[in-house]
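Morning!

As promised:
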Amino acid sequence: MSRAASAQDLRPNRLACILGLCRSFIREFFDQNPLSQLGIAIMRNGLVEKLTDLSGSPEAQVAKLDAGKLGSPAGDASLQNALDLSVSLLRSLPPYGHRELLVVFSALATCDPGNVLDSAKACKANNIRVSVVGVAAEVYVCRRITEETGGTYGVALNETHLEQLLLAHSSPPPATSAQAKAELVRMGFPQRSTEEASSAVFVGLEARLLSGNYTCPRCKARVPELPCECHICGLTLISSPHLARSYHHLFPVPPYHEDSKERAEEAAGVLIRQPAMRDEVPTSTGSYCFGCLREVSQPGAAGQLHLTLRCGRCKQVFCFECDAYVHEQLHNCPGCEFGGT
Amino acid sequence: MADAEGDLLVLLLDLALLRPDNPALSAAGAAPTDILAQLLSFTNAYAMLNSHNRLAIFAGQQEMCHLVHLGLGEDANSSADSVFPAGSLHARLSELVARCKQAAVTAPAADAGAAAPSGFALSGGLSRALCLLHRLQHQRGGRPRGRPRVLCVLGSIDAPMQYIPVMNAIFSAQRAEVVLDAVVLASEDSSFLQQAAHLTGGLYFRPAGAAALLGVLLNYFVCDTATRQQLDVTQELGVDFRASCFCHKFVIETGYVCSVCLSIFCQPSRACSTCGTAFTGVAGGTGGGSSARGGS
């Protein structure tokens, strides 16, 4: 939030635009990484202020990112202070976790008390990956820092591009060999209590009276929401959907290939064994998308209305929209779910 | 404005409920013809409620899920007798059931008692339903009144190997704001569908007998989600969110999670059996041979 953030090349000004995009980034980040923690800090007047602590709940973070409460941008940005703050906060985390710092930088220079490259070396020593999304122009020191720590540096051309760059950071980065230390982490899977108002108890560190809560399996303390750490015994508490949300990164869907006559003939031999799921909708071309039942053209036909794609594993036909939907959101190929080869 | 008024429902039907050779049904005292009649009344009632209501019905079992009906409301060019789906639906379902019965008879059974249909392709059915809803919602004038929904009427128990694809389907339904409802006519609760209903804001029912099916369907599932908020819906309590360990499939309350692949184990060991990573710093883990720890 240096004074460069009040420039108006992004509507209505850079700060408002960035805050809005950060809010959607936070929601997307927790959607993709439910077991992770995120904290926010702002650089203003040559200092860095910690806005929120590292926590696993998106709503509290999003609420703090309100332009009215944050005050106005002023002064210079200091990258060294930001790097030092992230080292102190992330240093105490267990070694199997990824540590990342994402900087949204709208100034053109950094105003530091010492040598910023020393702080970058400290980040590298602590396995922190620093990435920068620039809003103004490319700044050499940002490039050096991100290269040294193994992060990425992108400069946005316009608002849409800025959104793309930010959201690209919401999916987990590939792990480097330096982070390959794996551990078995002890975790608890609490049960949810009933929702009846008559069973309300005092829950959590602040002792709020709530009816829907979870019971820690080790010490039987009540916690309000998952994922969290039990405030009494320190056990990490999660529910199985939180883990399952990440399984699609481990078992990705194979890509679909554009259909051709040879592939279609090969597929016909395989699909003969599944007589049940053919000819479900009347079509003029004879083939339809297995996912959304839209009519698709025959492979190799001229003037195709919808691009025809075929899954390499189950040999079913899909349309272009279903391909995008399956690979970006659903992470299941509908055809492969039926015991395809 | 008028074409934004209809509702959008995909029905996933388990053919195990309609097969006369299913021993579980006769044990529960339910006749397949009775269940079929109740389902047909429900589909007719749904189509009658609003001429813009859109309905797709998939019927399936373990290895397949076939589309038996696709009614896209009054605007799509359809003749009068296909607006009420019961007639054509009855014919197609009977034909499918006969085909399945024949396939079960001719296919060599793995063991003597395997004539009964087992399991339902829940992950495949949900995936197809979600792709279809994705297309129908994004058409011009495609947004329904309330939220689009998927209603699963099942007669089988969960298949544990479908856990990951079913959870993927549930999460993308959550993102797309699709409501997943379930009515289960089986001997045990389906924890997959309980979690699906809980995470997407849907309803889960396991009626006491098959005769109660139509009552439940007409009470809760004929109207759209906007109207449902005005009904007094009492939900059964208790969703089991506990995980099961990968090694024994016990349901566990505390477990060990591999930090690389997130698989869950009930006892510490030297290496992860899913991804093969060797663990450092496992304090005194002797993986097996200790007293039985996997528990209820």
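Residues 260 and 300 of chain A are 6 Å apart (CA to CA).

Hope this helps with the figure draft.
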